[in-house]
Amino acid sequence: DKNIDESISVWRVIFIYFLISGLSNSFINSFPVNQLFFISCGYYVYKYNLIKKNAGKQI
């Protein structure tokens, strides 16, 4: 459980960082970073749903 909590907090920090970066104009102009942001969003949501699904089970 500790490992899962740590990975969530790490991804939350990255997610928030990208979210803040998304508000700056330089972010919009750099396509690779933009792509990375959407990949991170997708991965974050996927990971969150996976953990929510496994919440009842013992990992």
Could you give the topology of this structure?
Elements: H1 2-22, H2 25-29, H3 31-53
Helix pairs in contact: 1-3
Transmembrane segments: 9-28
Protein name: O-antigen polymerase
Keywords: Membrane, Transmembrane, Transmembrane helix
Segments where pLDDT lies below 50 for 5+ residues? none
Structural class given helices, strands, pairing? mainly alpha
Number of domains: 1
- Please, what is the average pLDDT? 74
The amount of beta strand, in percent, is: under 5%
Largest sheet: none
Q: What coarse outline follows from CA principal-axis ratios?
A: elongated
Rounded to an integer, what's the Rg over CA atoms? Answer: 14 Å
The span between the termini is: 8 Å
Helix content: over 70%
The count of helical stretches stands at 3
- Number of beta-strand segments: 0
Order of helices and strands: HHH
How would you describe this structure to a colleague?
It comes from Salmonella enterica subsp. salamae. This is O-antigen polymerase. The protein is built from 3 helices and no strands. The chain has 59 residues and is an all-alpha fold. The N and C termini lie close together (8 Å). The relative contact order is 0.15.
Short description:
The chain crosses the membrane at residues 9-28. This protein is mostly helical and 59 residues long.
